[in-house]
Amino acid sequence: MMSDLDGTAIGFAGLGNMGQPMALNLAEAGFRLTVFDPRAERMEPFRDLGTTIAASPADLLSGADIVVTMLPDTPDVESVVTGPDGIASLGRPGLVHLEMSTIIPSASKRFADLLEARGMRFVDAAVGRSALHAARGESLFMVGAHDADLALVRPLLEAMGDTIVHCGPPGSGIAMKIVNNFQGNVQAQVTAEALVLGARLGLTVDRMVEVMSGTLSVNGFLTGYYPVKALAGDVEPGFALRLANKDLSIAVNLAAELGVPVTAGASAQACVEAACAEYGEKDVTALLDAAADGAGILAPRMAKA
Question: Could you confirm whether 229 is annotated as catalytic?
Answer without folding.
Answer: no
